[in-house]
């Protein structure tokens, strides 16, 4: 996994990816994200894995949730911290190693892995490991929400960027996102002890953006 982490960290320390995240920082929640929030108990403590520059963290904080947000890239965590300070938002931003969650068991009400972060965990053993970590840090009956790129959609719309299940969204990099079917996402969640509430396609901001797959699970 260490090589995997370095590939992902490198991408998110370079200007193209940072610029894309910077452009999204002030955007509202996506359509499917807003729908998922209805599952979250009021004033939940949410762990945001792969938070980038904090778009989701800031939006969720503004909805009254307590947020701890983590990422492997210092280049994105530091601007997020600064923006939180400037906008007077009490959000905890932390740098992590990308696989181990540095928190006690049974800590959070909700864990999210949005922006298709889950697809950056290469190899099945690493996907299972991070899902087990999510299970560990969630309280009893806690909620996990994670998303992934839709393999069937990419096969039709962007086959030139797809190599098997590997979706290369950026040129000239070894970094890719694993693409999924809904059944694959459900199977991985169930293999790690979660009960799947729903797993389906969701709208990003508008229909023409294409769908994203997302799962809601309970511990």
TrEMBL record:
Q: Which UniProt keywords apply?
A: Methyltransferase, Transferase
Residues in a coiled coil are none
Leader sequence residues: none
Q: Which Gene3D superfamilies match?
A: Vaccinia Virus protein VP39
What molecular function does GO assign, one term? methyltransferase activity
Q: Which GO terms describe its biological process?
A: methylation
Give the Methyltransferase domain ranges. 46-142
Which CDD domains does this one have? AdoMet_MTases
Indicate yes or no for the key word 4Fe-4S. Answer: no
Tell me yes or no: is Transferase among this UniProt entry's keywords: yes
Xref: PANTHER family? METHYLTRANSFERASE (PTHR43591), RHODANESE DOMAIN-CONTAINING PROTEIN (PTHR43591:SF110)
Q: What is this protein called?
A: Methyltransferase domain-containing protein
Species this chain originates from: Clostridium rhizosphaerae
């Amino acid at each position: 996994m260490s090589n995997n982490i370095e590939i992902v960290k490198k991408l998110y320390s370079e200007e193209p990816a940072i610029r894309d995240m910077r452009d999204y920082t002030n955007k509202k929640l996506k359509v499917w994200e807003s729908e998922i929030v209805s599952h979250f108990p009021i004033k939940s403590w949410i762990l945001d894995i792969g938070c980038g520059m904090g778009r989701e963290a800031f939006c969720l904080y503004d909805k009254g949730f307590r947020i701890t947000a983590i990422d492997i890239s210092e280049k994105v965590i530091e601007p997020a911290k600064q923006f939180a300070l400037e906008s007077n938002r009490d959000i905890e931003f932390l740098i992590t190693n990308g696989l181990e969650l540095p928190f006690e068991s049974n800590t959070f009400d909700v864990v999210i892995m949005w922006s298709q972060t889950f697809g950056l965990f290469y190899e099945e053993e690493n996907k299972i490991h991070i899902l087990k970590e999510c299970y560990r840090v969630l309280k009893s009956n806690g909620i996990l929400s994670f998303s992934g790129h839709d393999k069937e959609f990419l096969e039709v719309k962007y086959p030139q960027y797809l190599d098997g299940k590997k979706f290369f969204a950026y040129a000239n990099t070894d970094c890719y996102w694993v693409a999924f079917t809904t059944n694959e996402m459900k199977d991985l969640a169930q293999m790690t002890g979660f009960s799947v509430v729903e797993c389906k396609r969701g709208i990003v901001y508008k229909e023409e953006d294409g769908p994203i797959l997302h799962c809601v699970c309970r511990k």
